[in-house]
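can u do me a favor
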């Protein structure tokens, strides 16, 4: 068992998930170095993390008496070198993750836990990009990570027992429970969820029902707390399309090729909540 003072996190990628994970960690007293290539993303992230921490405080989900972990933001990837754990949360594009993890592998000391928050890329594939693949594990944090207590932990074929123990200790410090699955494209959650969202979008594309009606049916009749298209807007339609491409390439399942409507939303810059519009329009609600 470890306590929060033994952990120093580096989170790479200051987007939707990087900011969520940073809020979760700093809220649990763990210091974070947050890295991104984009200075504007880092400036926005500092604000977003503060807002999420305020929300977490209001929701009563932060531990008492630990204080906040320090947050440092940087565009220098080498600043991850002092971390006890590196969490990669960059864009879901194989080449981008390959480049980042290859560089991380050259920067961190043996014994550093390397986590990828990938949605769909298999852990075994990523393990070949780092010098010590046994120290790499997938942790699929849910969005919003600072509120949802369960995570999907993906054990690669070569992930060591020691790495599994260390990730369990970290998750416990962060108040998270992990359910462990074996490696596969999309693992369990996204192998199920992403094709569902894609099909929901296809139904809108075919004119079978509007986005409101598709989500209304799944929420009202099947008891889903959030319909698939609102979920898509929360995830980010751009990220979802990238993840579907990864799934399609690796499974060959035609249901995983992102549908035209989704690709059109991406081209139009309607990426969901983060841009104010996706399958639904959030701009009025924000006024
Ligand atoms: P995002 O698009 O919001 O953020 C990605 C960030 O990575 C951007 O800020 C970008 O500037 C940064 N980035 C790109 N290349 C970089 C590099 N070379 N070095 C440093 N930073 C770089 O994406 P999001 O949604 O946060 O997704 C991140 C990862 O988390 C993806 O693998 C995604 O599949 C996964 N994920 C996403 C969830 C969601 O609900 N959005 C849920 C669970 C996992």
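np, heres the sequence
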């Amino acid at each position: 068992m470890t306590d929060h003072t033994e952990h120093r996190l580096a989170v790479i990628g200051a987007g939707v998930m990087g900011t969520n994970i940073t809020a979760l960690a700093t809220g649990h007293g763990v210091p974070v170095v947050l890295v991104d290539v984009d200075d504007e993303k880092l400036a926005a992230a500092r604000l977003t993390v503060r807002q999420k921490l305020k929300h977490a405080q209001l929701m009563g989900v932060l531990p008492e008496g630990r204080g906040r972990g320090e947050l440092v933001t940087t565009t220098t990837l080498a600043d991850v070198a002092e971390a006890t754990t590196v969490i990669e949360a960059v864009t879901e594009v194989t080449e981008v993750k390959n480049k980042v993890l290859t560089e991380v592998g050259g920067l961190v000391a043996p014994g550093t836990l390397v986590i990828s928050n990938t949605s769909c890329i298999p852990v075994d594939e990523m393990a070949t990009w780092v010098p010590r693949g046994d120290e790499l594990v997938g942790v699929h944090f849910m969005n919003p990570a600072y509120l949802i207590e369960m995570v999907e932990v993906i054990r690669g074929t070569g992930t060591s027992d020691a790495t599994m123990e260390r990730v369990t200790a970290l998750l416990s410090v962060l108040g998270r429970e992990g359910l462990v699955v074996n490696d596969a494209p999309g693992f369990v959650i996204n192998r199920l969820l992403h094709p569902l969202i894609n099909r929901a979008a296809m139904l809108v594309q075919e004119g079978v029902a509007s986005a409101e009606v598709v989500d209304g049916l799944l929420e009202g009749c099947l008891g889903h707390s959030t319909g698939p298209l609102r979920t898509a807007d929360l995830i980010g339609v751009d990220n979802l399309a990238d993840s579907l491409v990864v799934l399609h390439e690796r499974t060959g399942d035609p249901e995983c090729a992102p549908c035209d409507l989704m690709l059109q939303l991406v081209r139009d810059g309607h990426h969901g909540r983060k841009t104010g519009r996706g399958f639904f329009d959030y701009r009025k609600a924000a006024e």
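Residues 238 and 266 are 5 Å apart (CA to CA). hope that helps!!
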